[in-house]
Amino acid sequence: MQEHMAERCDYICVHEDLVQKVAELLPEEEQLYDLADFFKVFADTTRIKILFVLFESEVCVCDLARLLGMNQSAISHQLRILKQSKLVKNRRDGKTVFYSLADDHIKSILGQGMEHINE
Fold first, then answer.
1. Structural domains for the chain
2. Residue 76 in contact with residue 61, Cβ under 8 Å?
3. Please, are residues 110 and 79 in contact by the beta-carbon 8 Å criterion?
4. What pLDDT, in 10s, does the model give residues 49-102?
5. Could you tell me which of 32, 51, 31 has the C-alpha nearest to residue 105?
6. How far is CA 11 from CA 6, 56, 115, in A?
């Protein structure tokens, strides 16, 4: 019972100056919506595995399928989602398409996430 009460003020007193200052600094609603969508992409274990593979090396769908023990169509589906979210990019070399992380921000996000859960 006591733990539940820790999330509430014992006395109602809104600090108007603080509320106004913070309200002015909040991102626009559309930006917050886009950010929430961005983080939803990380909510799938398969996509996280793919990102960690790509963290280490550029690979093709065949390599990913072997590494993750999945079929190519399942991998392709997840890569499509990651590409639409601008987390991965691809390049063609003959008949093979290679995938890599879109930029260093993704490495940073993954690294910070791992750091956080290992604390």
1. 2-117 (1.10.10.10)
2. yes
3. no
4. 999 999 999 999 999 999 999 999 999 999 999 999 999 999 999 999 999 999
5. 51
6. 12, 52, 37
